[in-house]
Structure formats: C-alpha cells, structure tokens
C-alpha cells in the first residue's frame, strides 16, 4: 500500500465504520438482526468503495464532512448486503467470506436474507436523512438505486447466474461485470463528482477512470481465485472453476488475463491524468494511490 493511501485508509475507515454502526444502532431493530448485520460489516472488508468515494471528494480539495461519510457508509452497507446474498445457497453457496464463516452459516438462511435486506434498506434510509441540498440528495439516491438495482448490480448478478455452465463472449463478460461489480465502483466516483458539483468534462474523465478501475478490480478478483493466497483473500481459491464460471482467466487464459489487467490499469491512469490536467494537479493523488494498491496481486 502506498504510504499516503494507507494513511488515508487508516484515518478514514474508523469514521466510515462509526457512521454505519451508530446509524444502525440508533434506528432501533431486533437485537438478533442487528447482530447479523454487524457480523458481516465487522468481518474485515477493505472498504474499497467508500474510500474510493472519499478519495474522489478529496481530489477536488474538499474537506471531508459528515455527509461524505454518510454516502461512504451507505455504499459499504449495500456492498455488504450484496456479499451476504451472493454467499447464500441459492447463489454461490459459499461457506467462507472475508476469512470467516458466511452470514447464513452463523445465523441461518432466513436471518442472513433479512440482514441483507435490512442493510440495503437502511443504506437508503441513511442517505435520505443527509443534511444537504435536497436536489443533490435526491440525485445521489437516484444514482445509487440505478447502480445497485435491477439496471445495475442486480442485473449483473442475474446475467452471471443465467450464464453459468454456458460459454459467453468476452464482450458479454465485460457487460455483465460492468453491472455486477462495476456499477457500484463507478457510483463511488460519480457520487464524488456530483457532491462536488463538477462539470461534464471532469465527469467524463473520472468516469472513464472508474470504468477501467472497475474492470481491473474484477480481473484481479478472477486472477486471485486462481493464483491468490487463501490466507490473504479469506476464501478458498478455485471456486470459479468449480462453479464453471465465466471469468477473465477462463476466457483469456492466465497470461491473457494478466495482460488485460495491466491494460485496464494503464487506461485508468491515462483518464486520471486528463482529469488532473483540468485541475492543474501536478502531485500524485489518492486516486492514483488506489490504482497502485490495486496493482499489487
Ligand atoms: C446478490 C444482488 C446481489 C449481488 C451480488 C457484487 C456481487 C453481486 C457479488 C460479489 C461476487 C464477487 C465475489 C464479485 C467479485 C468482485 C467483488 C465484488 C469482490 C468483493 O469485493 P471486495 O474485494 O470485498 O471489495 P471486501 O471483502 O474487501 O469488502
């Protein structure tokens, strides 16, 4: 991890976490449900999406405030819900996530489904309470619904499930991942652009950065499933092959996937350089730090 990004993560993860835990504690719910929600939130995720959002806000030299942490918290809550549901027997049927037994292994299927439902719902509840201009708030909520809903992450998950046991093209694989994994990653950057009231050209370059970052993120996940260290990634490797999944490695081979990964990291770098030019930023930014961090396999 680059020192600056590491410091940024160390400083901000506790604030993101506090925002999530306090909001959930205060909004009063069944103790068992809260325990199950917190179990997955506390299981040690990297907080990649919320940090990406906060890094985008910082790119525009804005001081991080309560509202920013609320968007960041909502993003992580939605991400965590998606992982709980993804691990269910009806989906990937995984026993381990983030190095710990999956939510349904500890709390049973019914509570796991409900804790995912509650994290999703409470994420929007949290965003609806944000004290910012109502137009910006509505736009942030609209974009999050679009990214996580039936046009975005859920659509990608459906394509993934329906495509199991079938060979699909690289183009369809990318389309599926741009929704399943990419949409929330792109939201993290777009929300930063929206909350900082940035204009068209800036949005264009940063969204291109986010798009390539999202693809590289997914390729890395596919690579780690083949060459990763189980103790580091917190789950068994080889699951994609066992499920007969379409992945960058199954379609391009190991070397091909490594090349595609390097290529998308480079494209992300180029788009970021254009965005920096617009703001006349000369020094490295946290958005580069995130890319550097991603490059470590
Ligand atoms: C169930 C609606 C629904 C959607 C699930 C994103 C997703 C859709 C499922 C996750 C499946 C998966 C493992 C995708 C690969 C990329 C990915 C999202 C990895 C996990 O994200 P990280 O690495 O995880 O940010 P941590 O644990 O660090 O939060």
TrEMBL record:
Q: Per UniProt, which keywords does this protein have?
A: Isoprene biosynthesis, Magnesium, Metal-binding, Transferase
User: What processes in GO biological process is this protein linked to?
Assistant: terpenoid biosynthetic process
Any Pfam family the entry gives: polyprenyl_synt
Q: What class of enzyme is it?
A: transferase
Name the needed cofactors: Mg(2+)
Query: In the UniProt record, which is one GO cellular component term?
Result: cytoplasm
* EC numbers: 2.5.1.10
Q: Which GO terms describe its molecular function?
A: (2E,6E)-farnesyl diphosphate synthase activity; metal ion binding
Looking at the record's lineage, which domain of life comes first? Bacteria
Task: Reply yes or no: does the keyword Magnesium apply.
Answer: yes
Reactions that this protein is recorded to catalyse: isopentenyl diphosphate + (2E)-geranyl diphosphate = (2E,6E)-farnesyl diphosphate + diphosphate
Similarity remark = Belongs to the FPP/GGPP synthase family.
Q: State what protein this is by name.
A: Farnesyl diphosphate synthase
Q: Which organism is it from?
A: Vagococcus carniphilus
